[in-house]
Amino acid sequence: MQLEVYGDTLCALVSATALASAGNQVFLHLPEGNVAQQLAQGDCPFREPGLADLMAEQSQAGRLVLSSLESPPHQQSTVVWLALSPDALELAVQIVAMLPTHRAERWLVVNQSTFPVGTSESLQRALVENTTESETGSAVVSLPDLIIEGNALQSFMRADSWLLGAEQVWAQKQVAELLRPFNRRRDAIMLMGSREAEFTKLAITGMLATRLSYMNDMANLADHLGVDIERIRQGMGADKRIGEAYLYPGCGFGGLSFSRDVMSLASTLQGSGMQAQLLDEVLRINERQKEVLFRKLWRHYGTELRGRRVAIWGVSFKPESSRIDNSPALKLIEALWAQGVEVHVHDPRALQVLGEWAGERDDLVLHDDPYAAAEGADALMLVTEWKAYWSPDLLRLKMSMAHPLLLDGRNVWDPDFIKQSGFTYFGIGRS
């Protein structure tokens, strides 16, 4: 098939690349900005495993072609794929309204953007209003973005599930054909209405965020009770009614899409006249949790932090990502600055964007080497659980740090082993 993909999100790039790799002719329409500039220079703006290589391969083969937003769809195209940012709803309406209608072929518009519930129905009305002959039967379907950052390409090409909201049978069949190369192990497509698909996407995110915040509350209580949250987590996960996923406490969750989805669900609840008490509390707990490492440091040093040096390992909002959107590290760094602390940071991928976020500051030093960041530090805080941090050279750390204090924001280290190695250790619900 020939497709027109619109957007400069990670979802847009992954979808366009994966669809091109299956033999489709894909035109990727990009808004002006950094993403378009980097792609024009042959660079991939998202550091996702396998994405840059596959994009280059499909571009060289001529199956993935970059285009501008203003470029009209090609004559032979029948599919428009919207993977826009959540704040680009007006642009989505404009794209649908500008689709050529004087043609025999009907349009299939696949809405993969995370917009408010009911948006696909609104786009369907806009498409019908723009259609001069109603018998063409053009359709808008909802196919919510369920890709996982850090494993985005594989989470599309080997998806555990697809939520397909489509009322027209022909549209269901055409989307199923588009996804057939990625849907061979078992039929992972779940059919539902477009509103149901959009709501399910938000409900999933809300549930995951709720589990995370609940576990963070339990971890804080474990600190108070003097019990090990790791044993509690294992006991909870062993109950099949609960399961193990998203039960790991930490120093808060981040990510632009994740946070926006939770806030969008809360806004939807409030807009319906219902109170979003649970989700509001989930968000409040998460914001408080982003300061948990700072509070532990504050208490350890008896509130005397001015002039101290603190090292942070990991500032991206999750491993395998270069993005720092709503990352717990940002709030932590601001709290440390407010107390006159000099912050030294290492991250495998996010140093450049952190530097852009912070600007030139004397109290922020970025390091390409994690041990250089920890040298002379009064404390080392692990915020993002990159695998490179899981088994550090503890002897080297102890010899180089001013004070052997480790604050584990992701509970990746073993407290007993760390203490036996001569460190003071604080985790999340572990000590």
Automatic annotation (TrEMBL):
Gene3D superfamilies: Cytochrome c1, transmembrane anchor, C-terminal (1.20.5.100), NAD(P)-binding Rossmann-like Domain (3.40.50.720)
EC number: 1.1.1.22
Keywords, sorted A to Z: NAD, Oxidoreductase
Span of domain UDP-glucose/GDP-mannose dehydrogenase C-terminal: 311-415
Keyword NAD on entry: yes
Pfam families, A to Z: UDPG_MGDP_dh (PF00984), UDPG_MGDP_dh_C (PF03720), UDPG_MGDP_dh_N (PF03721)
Gene Ontology MF, one: NAD binding
One GO biological process term: UDP-glucuronate biosynthetic process
Catalysed reactions, semicolon-separated: UDP-alpha-D-glucose + 2 NAD(+) + H2O = UDP-alpha-D-glucuronate + 2 NADH + 3 H(+)
UniProt pathway annotation: Nucleotide-sugar biosynthesis; UDP-alpha-D-glucuronate biosynthesis; UDP-alpha-D-glucuronate from UDP-alpha-D-glucose: step 1/1
Family: Belongs to the UDP-glucose/GDP-mannose dehydrogenase family.
Protein name from the UniProt record: UDP-glucose 6-dehydrogenase
UniProt organism field: marine sediment metagenome
